[in-house]
């Protein structure tokens, strides 16, 4: 079941007085993929949730994010756009960002992804280091304004978790204030074979 023009995939889980009850499954076309890897929205959200905890000691918080699979380089790599806000004073969050913490955020995201991603990244080397691009505060408001101007409903707007539109990518890239890459490949879990 598709929810209007939002692109959510829903599953009917039951009925209440003949009205269907739904469970959110995933968003349409929200799969990052460079090689044989397939990262869905749920896995990405879980990985980002783990990584954003590293911002708390800096008194910063992740307010919004999106992603895209950058295949303009060889090997291609995942790019995450993060909007970060400082929770304390009016100091801009990017001034508080420590590159080692942001690089560790990249590593935590990679370590949280599935085995196929890790194999492609660490063993096959068919995926490059994950990148986090920090954008200016308010960038995701501008992203929403652009999507609404292109016909998205303001009442149903949700930040896209995977960007494919060149125009939206240009907007995000124009607001980048910091770029950070994973400095180490994810550790592959050892697989024990029994005979």
TrEMBL record:
InterPro entries xref list: GH3, GH3_C, GH3_M
Pfam families reported in the protein's UniProt record: GH3_C (PF23572), GH3_M (PF23571)
Keyword match Ligase: yes
GO MF, one annotated term: acid-amino acid ligase activity
Alphabetical UniProt keywords: Ligase
Organism: Nymphaea colorata (pocket water lily)
Domain GH3 middle: from-to ranges: 1-27
Name of the protein described by the UniProt record: Indole-3-acetic acid-amido synthetase GH3.17
GH3 C-terminal domain span: 42-167
Domain of life: Eukaryota
Keyword Ligase: yes
An example Gene Ontology CC term for this record: cytoplasm
Annotated family: Belongs to the IAA-amido conjugating enzyme family.
């Amino acid at each position: 079941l598709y929810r209007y023009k939002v692109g959510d995939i829903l599953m009917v889980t039951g009925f209440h007085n003949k009205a269907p009850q739904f469970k959110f499954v995933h968003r349409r076309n929200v799969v990052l993929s460079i090689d044989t890897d397939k990262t869905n929205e749920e896995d990405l959200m879980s990985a980002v949730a783990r990584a954003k905890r590293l911002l708390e000691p800096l008194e910063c918080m992740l307010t919004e994010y999106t992603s895209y699979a950058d295949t303009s380089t060889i090997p291609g790599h995942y790019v995450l756009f993060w909007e970060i806000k400082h929770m304390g004073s009016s100091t801009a969050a990017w001034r508080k960002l420590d590159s080692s913490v942001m690089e560790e955020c990249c590593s935590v995201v990679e370590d949280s992804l599935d085995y196929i991603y890790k194999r492609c990244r660490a063993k096959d080397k068919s995926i490059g280091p994950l990148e986090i691009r920090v954008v200016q505060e308010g960038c995701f408001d501008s992203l929403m304004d652009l999507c609404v101007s292109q016909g998205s409903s303001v009442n149903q707007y949700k930040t896209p978790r995977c960007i494919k539109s060149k125009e939206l990518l240009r907007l995000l890239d124009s607001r980048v204030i910091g770029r950070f890459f994973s400095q180490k490949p994810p550790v592959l879990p050892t697989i024990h074979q029994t005979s």
